[in-house]
């Protein structure tokens, strides 16, 4: 059966980098992967064209797709939009929610070839390989009630941080399973000394633990986790946490590698449908200049093959091709230094294609 | 008028480190500082003695004090307390709330003598000097409603992230004033692309800005702030943010220095009353062994002199004494390496006293 892949280039460098990822998808197709590729608008680009960051047509296509490849959304021209429902980010949040993409996988992996790029000392980060499992469709991002209203003569802003047992259990299982496939260490991050919602989180994680006796579960407060990521990140294997803490910690963890232009991510629902996107943003300042790093997006295709299309072999080939290109010292501007060879976005894409 | 100082040693290494800080306070007294020192119980120690982490007597003494010096609270023996109102942390949160200590100042300062201790590359952190201003009595730490309850047959945990304009304005002013005394750069951290409460936060910060034309205000999303702290922390001067984000970011920032045993903090209310405490925790594993680092607590006394007792000169003298002791290569175990001289908690305290 033909797999439907929807590409959502989005804003900023989104079109530049997804173009290179599409080359790899097409190469897979030539090798016999049965896929069909479509494109649609999302984010600021969709707002400009249709007045909505997540047009109905895009949502319908997304629902019908087996997997989605997203570039990036957002840019300064939309930051001042009064109606926040129209902001580019809402396109992304809408897709996550509508498709039920609750399981967000964010690896923080240090490529040995890029060890220099890290702001941390080599011995602290060499060999770093963390997987952050972030809950993506609940928590304070979506909790009700929310808003800004007048109370006793002044305005008050409020949001609700809420999780049900079922939501916690569901993401917990994803994390335990992930730990099983890796080094069998799972650290659940919460703020159970202050927030009731995370006390329930901790309790549910504890309750799941006996079902995964081969996985060593630990708990850490979020402030300590932020410290430990800076101090000794290699102590972690898999981290599981809620939407907001996951947003913060996964970005911190990604930055430990010094090359966020390298890091892919996956967002999965219960049916195995997934959205795949680079961890970095839309970098509007360098959009359309053919200088952005397409590797995170290309590696997102590898995640797509592994997690949604059940093609781990092809996934591995893409990952090895990327590693080989790095070995040959080709670098986009963001990861270039001293003796490496600086290449453009499309040259990088072509190099991966050749090594594939 | 005699200033009343209340010392709350608390748990774990709390008694070890506050004992050294008291030596310095007494030295100031000898030099003419008109103070009166009292002690009381808080945290787990108070729970064990009186069944309450914040006994009424302690609260009354705290309210009557001009300044409070706190050691640290918490320990594994109290982590399993079913009634969370009895946990050691509640003593701390109760003091903050009851005294209205909304303005939390958390410096992240790298002592040049300890540059080696950082997990970051020297060029990334040398000269690091950030002040994080964290709102401490509002936000999700104290928002109502909160709890765990049954809904549709399953348990749900919830907390409320809430700020009023007045609360935001109050902490904003503290931050702008602080920036004025430093390098006039203020970065307000929020998640205004997702959370309404932080949209209001950003709006109020913007509204205050024209009153401080000499301060350059910028805004950053919390996920990006976590990344930027890892990537290039020296871009920051003063950071202002809410209670939860402040908890996470201030710990990450502190850890950039690699020597959290050095970092003091202040928590102030509108009357200038303050509670002063080290940023590190109660380290129960080394409690009572006379090996903990007392410098963060001694530097907390310096903050007390500067912010609550209006004795900037004495504060400066303590800070210089600490720096001098570091110059002479004395180190407690946590900051010792290679060619330095390892000393105990009390030896370190005595050395500072001598240099004072
Ligand atoms: C753009 C924004 C809404 C989003 C988030 O906060 O989830 C982004 O930071 C991310 O982590 O994917
Ligand atoms: C102990 C805990 C309640 C406290 C907090 O979260 O505020 C601590 O982490 C801190 O930062 O002072």
TrEMBL record, chains A, B:
Any GO MF annotation of the entry: 3-isopropylmalate dehydrogenase activity
Gene3D superfamilies assigned: Isopropylmalate Dehydrogenase
Pfam families: Iso_dh (PF00180)
EC number annotated for this UniProt entry: 1.1.1.85
InterPro entries in alphabetical order: IsoCit/isopropylmalate_DH_CS, IsoPropMal-DH-like_dom, Isopropylmalate_DH
Catalytic activities: (2R,3S)-3-isopropylmalate + NAD(+) = 4-methyl-2-oxopentanoate + CO2 + NADH
PROSITE patterns: IDH_IMDH
Pathways involved: Amino-acid biosynthesis; L-leucine biosynthesis; L-leucine from 3-methyl-2-oxobutanoate: step 3/4
Annotated Isopropylmalate dehydrogenase-like domain residues: 4-352
Binding site for substrate: 96, 106, 134, 223
Cofactor or coenzyme needed: Mg(2+); Mn(2+)
Residues bound to Mg(2+): 223, 247, 251
SUPFAM superfamilies: Isocitrate/Isopropylmalate dehydrogenase-like (SSF53659)
Residues annotated as site: Important for catalysis: 141, 191
List of residues binding NAD(+): 281-293
Xref: SMART domains: Iso_dh
Cofactor binding description: Binds 1 Mg(2+) or Mn(2+) ion per subunit.
Group of enzyme by EC: oxidoreductase
Protein keywords: Amino-acid biosynthesis, Branched-chain amino acid biosynthesis, Cytoplasm, Leucine biosynthesis, Magnesium, Manganese, Metal-binding, NAD, Oxidoreductase
Subcellular location: Cytoplasm
GO-annotated cellular components: cytosol
Listed NCBIfam families: leuB (TIGR00169)
Function as written in the Swiss-Prot or TrEMBL entry: Catalyzes the oxidation of 3-carboxy-2-hydroxy-4-methylpentanoate (3-isopropylmalate) to 3-carboxy-4-methyl-2-oxopentanoate. The product decarboxylates to 4-methyl-2 oxopentanoate.
Family: Belongs to the isocitrate and isopropylmalate dehydrogenases family. LeuB type 1 subfamily.
PANTHER family membership: 3-ISOPROPYLMALATE DEHYDROGENASE
Protein name: 3-isopropylmalate dehydrogenase
Organism whose genome encodes this protein: Pistricoccus aurantiacus
Organism classification: Bacteria, Pseudomonadati, Pseudomonadota, Gammaproteobacteria, Oceanospirillales
